[in-house]
Design a protein that fits this description.
- It is an enzyme of class 1 (oxidoreductase).
- Keywords: NADP, Oxidoreductase.
- With 300 residues, the protein is an alpha/beta fold.
- It is 45% helix and 13% strand.
- The two termini are 43 Å apart.
- It has a 7-stranded parallel β-sheet with strand order 3-2-1-4-5-6-7, sandwiched between helices.
- The structure holds coenzyme A.
Length: 300
């Protein structure tokens, strides 16, 4: 689903003339990013491992008037990364924007996941992001600058159950975002990240919610743990990517924007909303009647 209003807050030509490559752009959040970059004027190259998925993505994008190509391969193979970039330049005329969206994840406890399972996620998320960024840099530099957007997560803000592998991988991605921004800013390349929270209609939500229930039921359950009261839409992430690639973000680099409705901060309140005033005033009244300062720690 796109934005409920179906409208973009931006002019539809803000990325006109730009060429973008989106890893993992054939499905999920990556597809919606490809679509929104395309609807705002960019030509897009989408990458992925499954040719049929890429074919339907390109068909869907083209049907909306977007210039799109699909390039098949695996972000874990550096020769695939190089080939994607060459094909993008040959067929679309260069590169201005790289979106590192390819990711792998599953729920697994730290004692159960094998070293190879841990490595697999690190290779897709972290090494894939580095390999693509490194290979794209000379092309972006050649154009006098450009944008890299790394799709991250909030798993590693604190810690997340059964996600040691993905948390480590995304923490490293956030670190890369800052290091590359520092080193490549001189050449006009801005590097930022987006950390999505629970996002409706994605493999992330269906795989990681850990329950076998309908999408609606999962969304409803997860929404209880989001301060703004609903799970995000893929549009929310994609339109943030459009912003980061636009001239409005020309002075923004090394940052990761959290787009999660406040979900990472969520925790049950110690005192329910309806009881907080009465409980607090009760504590105050008791301490004043005793003529002493309020206690440092309330049992409530
Ligand atoms: N629990 C524990 N370990 C798992 C696992 C699970 N659910 N799924 C895979 N692994 C382990 C495998 O056992 C294997 O380790 P081993 O060789 O020691 O047995 C390792 O991970 C690689 O698995 P394999 O299936 O060979 O990798 P793949 O390249 O075919 O698939 C994945 C990569 C596992 C990341 C797969 O989930 C994937 O392709 N994901 C892409 C889409 C996605 O998950 N998106 C979500 C974004 S949030």
């Amino acid at each position: 689903m796109s934005h409920p209003s179906g409208h973009s807050p931006f002019k539809l030509d803000i990325l006109k003339g730009q060429v973008a490559l989106i890893t993992g752009g054939g499905s999920g959040i990556g597809f919606e990013i490809s679509r929104q970059l395309g609807l705002h004027g960019a030509a897009v190259a989408v990458t992925g491992r499954r040719q049929p998925v890429l074919d339907s993505a390109v068909e869907a994008l083209t049907s909306e008037g977007i210039k799109a190509i699909g390039v098949q391969g695996d972000v874990r193979k550096s020769q695939d990364c190089e080939r994607w970039l060459k094909e993008t330049c040959d067929r679309l005329g260069g590169l201005d924007i790289l979106i590192n969206c390819a990711a792998g994840n599953f729920l697994a406890s730290a004692e159960e996941i094998s070293v190879n399972g841990f490595r697999t996620v690190m290779e897709i998320d972290t090494i894939g992001t580095f390999a693509m960024s490194r290979a794209a840099f000379p092309l972006l530099r050649q154009r006098g600058g450009g944008r890299i957007v790394n799709i991250s997560a909030t798993l590693h803000y604190g810690a997340t159950w059964w996600q040691a592998h993905a948390s480590a991988a995304k923490a490293a991605v956030d670190s890369l975002t800052r290091s590359l921004a520092l080193e490549w800013g001189t050449f006009g390349v801005c590097v930022n990240g987006i950390a999505p929270g629970p996002t409706g209609g994605t493999a992330g939500l269906s795989k990681l919610a850990g329950v076998d229930a309908s999408e609606e039921a999962v969304n409803e359950a997860v929404a209880q743990m989001v301060p703004i009261g609903k799970v995000g839409a893929k549009w929310d992430i994609a339109i943030t990517a459009v912003f980061l690639c636009s001239s409005a973000a020309r002075h923004l680099t090394g940052d990761t924007l959290v787009v999660d409705g406040g979900a990472w901060m969520w925790r049950e309140p110690a005192v329910p909303r309806e009881a907080v005033s009465k409980a607090s005033r009760g504590v105050e009244a008791r301490s004043r009647s005793l003529g002493v300062a309020p206690p440092q720690r309330s049992k409530l």
